[in-house]
Amino acid sequence: MKLVVLVALALAAPHTSYGAPADLASVKDVIPILRDDRFHEEDGRFNIEIETGNGIRLSQGGSPDGPNGAVYQAGEYSYTAPDGTPVHVKFVANENGYQPESDLLPIAPEFPHPIPQFVLDQIAKAALEDAAASEEHDD
């Protein structure tokens, strides 16, 4: 039994060794930061503008206007993908979560046919039954 456990442990041991990270002196392409403007107000509002030498841009602002001081944010960023495709994303982050907008984001296909009314009625009935069952458990 001890032999089986020993063999299992030997097989489970990682077989690769992890090397130390590359020395910064060996990094060939250092990308300059062309712009890095950050403004933070005492009331929690902020604006950030960043631009790098390889075309990455970020513009973002926010304020603690949400419930319990939650920070709402809006902004945009852009860069060039490794295949050369320009990427531009606008976003809002609020009580509904992170909501990006971009031509490159996938769009779900439209439903192939209308949903029959009896199916919609059944879905509504199930929702009412779930709500009633939930109220019974809360009592």
Explain the overall architecture.
The chain is α+β, with helices and mostly antiparallel strands. It has a domain at 31-95. 24% of the residues lie in helices and 32% in strands. The chain contains 2 helices and 6 strands, in the order αββββββα. A 6-stranded antiparallel sheet has the order 1-2-3-4-5-6, with no helix packed on it. Strand 1 and strand 2 (46-52) form a beta hairpin. It starts with a helix and ends with a helix. The mean pLDDT is 86.
Summarize the structure.
With 139 residues, the chain is an alpha+beta fold.
The counted number of beta strands is: 6
Order of helices and strands: HEEEEEEH
Q: What is the CA-CA span between the terminal residues?
A: 54 Å
Secondary-structure content class: alpha+beta
| Spans of at least 5 consecutive residues with low confidence | none
Mean pLDDT across every amino acid position: 86
Largest sheet properties: 6 strands, antiparallel
Overall 3D shape: extended
Strand order of the largest sheet: 1-2-3-4-5-6
Helix content: 10-25%
Number of helices: 2
Report the C-alpha radius of gyration, rounded. Answer: 27 Å
Binned strand content: 25-35%
Assembly type: single chain
Name some characteristics of this structure:
6-stranded antiparallel beta sheet; extended; alpha+beta; 139 residues; single chain
